[in-house]
Specification:
This is 1D-myo-inositol 2-acetamido-2-deoxy-alpha-D-glucopyranoside deacetylase. Its EC number is 3.5.1.103. Belongs to the MshB deacetylase family. Zn(2+) binds at residues 15, 18, 147. It contains 6 helices and 12 strands. The chain has 288 residues and is of the alpha/beta class. The strands form 2 sheets. Strands 1, 2, 3, 4, 5, 7, 8 and 12 form an 8-stranded mixed beta sheet that branches. Helix 4 links the parallel strand 4 (132-135) and strand 5 (170-177). Helix 1 packs across helix 6. The structure holds zinc ion.
Length: 288
């Protein structure tokens, strides 16, 4: 049996592309540092809107298959080898945006039994034994049903795994400090004419924006900015990348953050904002 790396980070996301947008620099950093980085994506995002006209014929299962290939390419850019679909590819369907009829599809993730999905994720937790879990807040960052469900499943899985012998020492939610978002959008307003985009999104379109004092960790991804942009570009059906900006299918420009932010929700918070998600963990102590 090969020895597991000492530091192990698990990220749980809703669709292929969410990981690169939210955590691309963080994932690249820890992979480069030799930590084990495990990504679990809950759906293949087969109801996503496709940006490039030449790929718009892809819908449903064909789009899901294509997005799995995009995810594979993105993980290559970030140096992440361990990525999985919850319950295997296609186990849970994309639920589409909140309020549409697709939300009622019994095969979609929004309709999944939380305990059942969490049990599948708990198996991964018990296998990997991560010290750090990263996922979304209770609103899924911005209210998409699959993101909300991802939050519920991830938090429940952490409980189930704890009851079965592996309590994850630190749990974080993805965040962006309001002042950082506001400054970035102010800069974007001045630079918009020099970008390929004609309109800008707004601060409140960015998932996870909160008051600055709720942010407890900040990962400077400057050294991994190129890798993050490349990973985002690999999700070509979903993201139009023009660093330091990008747009989703709504074509609204938004900042591409190379520093990524987190709020610690389980575990012991440091007095100052952390710059390492593994900060404060005692080596060896979490190894059992
Ligand atoms: Zn998503």
């Amino acid at each position: 049996m090969t020895e597991s790396p000492a530091r192990r980070l698990l990220l749980v996301h809703a669709h292929p592309d969410d990981e690169s947008i939210n955590n691309g620099a963080t994932m690249a950093r820890y992979a480069a540092e030799g930590a084990r980085v495990t990504l679990v994506t809950c759906t293949l995002g087969e109801r996503g809107e496709v940006i490039p006209p030449e790929l718009r014929h892809l819908t449903g299962a064909a789009l899901g298959e294509h997005r799995l290939a995009e995810l594979t390419a993105a993980m290559g850019e970030l140096g992440v080898e361990d990525f999985r679909l919850l319950g295997g590819p296609g186990r849970y369907g994309d639920s589409g945006m909140m309020g549409i009829a697709d939300n009622d599809d019994p095969a979609c993730f929004w309709q999944a039994d939380v305990d059942e999905a969490a049990a599948l994720l708990a198996e991964v937790i018990l296998e990997v034994r991560p010290q750090v879990l990263v996922t979304y807040d209770e609103n899924g960052g911005y209210g998409h049903p699959d993101h909300i469900q991802t939050h519920r499943v991830a938090m429940r899985a952490a409980e189930l795994a704890a009851a079965q012998g592996w309590e994850i020492p630190k749990v974080y939610w993805n965040r962006v400090p309001r002042s950082v978002a506001e400054e970035a959008f102010a800069r974007l307003a001045g630079e918009l004419s020099g970008t390929p985009f004609s309109k800008a999104a707004a601060v409140d379109d960015v998932p996870g924006v909160v008051a600055d004092d709720r942010v407890t960790a900040e990962i400077d991804g400057t050294a991994y900015a190129v890798a993050k942009a490349a990973a985002m570009r690999a999700h070509a059906t979903q993201i139009d990348v023009a660093p330091p900006y990008f747009a989703l299918s709504n074509e609204l420009a938004q900042p591409l953050f190379t520093t990524e932010y987190y709020e610690l929700v389980r575990g012991k918070a440091a007095a100052q904002r952390e710059n390492d998600l593994f900060a404060g963990l005692v080596p060896g102590k979490e190894e059992s």
